[in-house]
Amino acid sequence: MAILRACGLRKEYGRGTGLVRAVDHVDLDVEAGETVAIVGPSGCGKSTLLHLLGGLERPTGGELRLADRRIDRMSETELARLRRQAIGFVFQAFQLVDELTALENVELPALLAGAGPRVARRRAVELLERVGLADRAAHLPAALSGGQRQRVAVARALVGRPYVVLADEPTGNLDSAATTEVLRLFAALRADGQTLLLVTHESRVAATADRVITMRDGALVGQTNLAGAGGGLGAFAGLEG
Amino acid sequence: MQDVVLALLAKEPSHGYELRARLQEALGPMGDALNAGQVYVTLTRLEKAGLVTAEHVGQAHRPDRKVYALTADGRRRVDAWLADLTWGKPSEFHLKLVAAAAARLADPVDLVEAQRRELLRRLADVQRAALIEPDGSAAALLIEGITLRLEADLRWLDACARHWDRKG
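^ Those are the sequences you sent over. The predicted structure of the assembly is below.
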């Protein structure tokens, strides 16, 4: 079943000759448990698409459904609640609150969503353990490495048990080792059945997805299926020649 | 070399001198090292293999020249080469795109897309291995090298797609 479904989704800016179709009639189904990567040159509209899918921006037209609920026409209040509970966001620049510890950063959205302090704390502790950072709970973001900060951000994204986690260039600020760290975490989440949609310009990140969708000039123009792909280590042999 | 020469002949019968000029044009400074002998040796081998036929054409005031044309077997070999996703040197893939476009054998953008999918699948296999390999092992270092190469190749394929998209 498609957990996230976009139908003829559009986002336009300006009008007349200045009209820009940032997202141009996008049809997209993301199945529950699937990891989907959207790739494309900068300015192709992939970040705008992610913002539409997550209810951060409103579409100009088209339909958007999350777990069978129309979300493109929701009121601001409903949409805000949806963003806190049903969707998890991970950003390139982590966007952690500098003054709060790792644990407090993770529990904050739960508290904002109305969870009691004890419930929120228990959930945050559990998630920091899940991302392998139980021993960093009391650290401020500044005392964490880039990879650790992004793992805290992933834990925060999971706090409301979202239907889908949307990640915008999640490894864009990370070096190679930290990228591997975050990709390992994503792989573990996928094994747990978490649905994940990521936008990236890094082919190595895209290559960890089940499906890679190419976007150009606001439209989805191609798709590569990678689920259970390839000839395993045979791929190595071809490179040695 | 054999495949490239065959693909260039798919457009129209031609002679060695012209084939060399077309290769040099496509390769630019990288074609400087290409000598006429290489093209003629290749043509002779292709003729022996039955992939091209040669016809002597008389010229006024100059010696005859040999004009080469593709046979049906030669044509089949060209089609197989275009469909082959083996990834070698950038120059070989570049010449494949140039030849395919010149003879209208295939849309270069489609060839780039097929190759891109293939490399992405390889990168997916490599990443699967990378994520379970312990950090700091000798194999992790090898995996990193292969990953970096595939990433560079995929970036170049994006550039190929943009170039041929504009031309098409």
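The CA atoms of residues 11 and 60 of chain A lie 5 Å apart. The longest helix of chain A spans residues 176-191.

Shout if you want it in another format.
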